[in-house]
Amino acid sequence: MSGYTPFQRQHRRAARWALYSSFALSGLAVFAVTHSFSRKLGTLEEQSGTREEWEARPEVELLRRYVRIDTTEREIEGARFLAEELRLMGLEPVLEELGDGRANLWAILEGRRREAIVLHNHIDVFRVLEPEAWAFEPFGGEIEPPFLYGRGAFDMKSLAIAQLLALRALAARPERPERSVIFLATADEESGSRLGTRWILREHPELAERFDLVLTEGGVVEPVSVSEIKYWGIEAGQKRFAAGEACFRSRAPLDWLFKELYRRQRELGTPVLTPEVRDFLRTYAPTREEKWFRRMLGSLLQGEANPTHFQVFPAYLRSLFLNEIVPFPVERTADGGYRLPMMAHLLPGADADRVFAELLPPWLTHGLDVRFDEPLGAAGGSSTTSADFRILEESLAAAHAGTPVGPYFLSWSATDARFFRQRGVASYGFSPFLVFSIESYRADTRNERINLPGFVAGVEVYVETVRRLADAARPAPAEAAAR
Fold first, then answer.
1. Torsion region of 31: left, alpha or beta (phi above 0 gives left; psi -120 to 50 gives alpha)
2. High-pLDDT (> 70) share of the chain, %
3. Which residues lie closer than 8 Å to 332 by C-beta, 6 or more apart?
4. What's the CATH code of the domain at 196?
5. Tell me, what DSSP letter sits at residue 368?
6. What pLDDT is attached to residue 17?
């Protein structure tokens, strides 16, 4: 996103790392993970074919074509590519042009029921900041087995292709699915979704009222190797975020506030256990290898957290239990004054005004002009006991026998699932791809890539998962209420 400062990009990369590698890359595990990555990669390469073999695969060819389209802050050509593929299925896509190359796209496969499963993806990609530092052309879609390189290969054109192929499989059948299926590709996700998902929900009520279930990005996998997976998470909840700033005519008070906010972040807060985090940790905690770590997570679940133990948790883990305000470096304003950008991270159910009053008390901001935007996102998560969620769990468990599968809570990152949830639509971050944290960390940096064995196998999982969801019978009233 062009509006990011270098510091904000660093913060975003840290969030990306935390999102996909979870707690495994805490200070106690960095060496072990780094040391073992060469072994993982070697195992992955043993599965790999030649460049020519990968190029011949239809799903890889589709992904290459899509990655080769530069959709940085301009979705129109990517939308046209997707629209043509949808027409080949016999569907009638709607391509909405919004000016300056921005665009949204959707197509509907009608089922026996009007309510629809939404296969959501965003077309735009993060800006390439250092093209000269890439080993390959950023929009070349180059294959160096076992990887395909290119901006968007991971975030999130690979998932869009899996969604496209899942819809194609349903459209090719003679019988209609039970539920309708909507392919929805949106603009502007990398800069807040103002012209994408938020626009669709606001300006197209005739479409939005059909949304019954949304599958989007945000799923998390923690592999030890290609044959051993520590945990596979389905994103079911996340924090809300509110952008803010403190302004003053001189710099010194804002520099002091910046340092004070960081100092206060290191102080012990009172852990708050929300239902969304409790659901996550119930299945996640038992998968941790270290006994002391499992014990500490268990104490948090029981509401018996030892403050000293809580302090030594990785920052990402502490963030699961705390409301936070993250400051960014002070900036000069056009009128000659100064501003301190801030981002509030709010737990589900948190009252924003109370959080601001607690974390930014009057004595801390006296004389400063402080303001925050309305928090973006839903007050709570999506059900982890519904029939739809069970299908997601069962699909991953069937594809990866013995793998613990369950909900995941995002505390440092946000996806468009938050906007669908805000409208009361059950939404899940579901990724079928077996990828390593090193790959995901590259998503917004140089040499973004996806491993092709994981991509191809994941497409098969996604196609079958969507089939099961689309053919699922209407839930009983009690189950429908749980959603």
1. alpha
2. 87
3. 338
4. 3.40.630.10
5. -
6. 43
Which two structure tokens, joined as six digits, stand for 268?
């012990």
Burial bucket for residue 409 (CB in 10 Å: 0-12, 13-18, 19+): buried
Residue 25 has pLDDT above 50, yes or no: no
What integer is the mean pLDDT of 118-140? 97
Long-range Cβ contacts of 67-70 (<8 Å, 24+ apart): 67/139, 67/140, 67/141, 67/148, 67/150, 67/151, 67/152, 67/153, 67/157, 68/139, 68/140, 68/141, 68/150, 69/139, 70/125, 70/139, 70/151
Handedness of CA 201, 206, 211, 217 (dihedral sign): negative
Task: Name which residue leads in pLDDT, 5 or 479.
Answer: 479
Task: Quickly tell me which residue has 């990517």 as its tokens.
Answer: 78
> Exposed, middle or buried by CB within 10 Å (0-12, 13-18, 19+), for 131?
exposed
* Greatest extent of the chain over all pairs of C-alpha atoms, in Å: 70
**Number of domains the chain contains:** 2
Same domain assignment for residues 305 and 390: no
Which residue, among 431, 412, 242, has the nearest Cα to 318 in the 3D structure? 412
Give the confidence band of 440 by pLDDT, cuts at 50, 70, 90.
Answer: confident
Residue 408 has pLDDT above 60, yes or no: yes
Q: Is the pLDDT of residue 3 over 60?
A: no
Domain extent for 324: 240-372
In a domain, 1, yes or no: no
| β-bridge pairing 220-225 and 324-327 | unpaired
The reply to whether 24 falls in a domain is yes
Is the pLDDT at 28 greater than 70, yes or no?
Answer: no
Q: What is the mean pLDDT of residues 307-312?
A: 72
Q: Report the alpha-carbon distance of residue 70 to residue 387 in Å, rounded.
A: 38
Query: Are both 225 and 282 inside the same structural domain?
Result: no
- Distance CA(139)–CA(130), nearest Å, equals 13
Do 472 and 366 fall within a single domain?
A: no
Same domain? 213 vs 319: no
Q: Say yes or no: 464 and 389 in one domain.
A: yes
Mean pLDDT on 451-480: 89
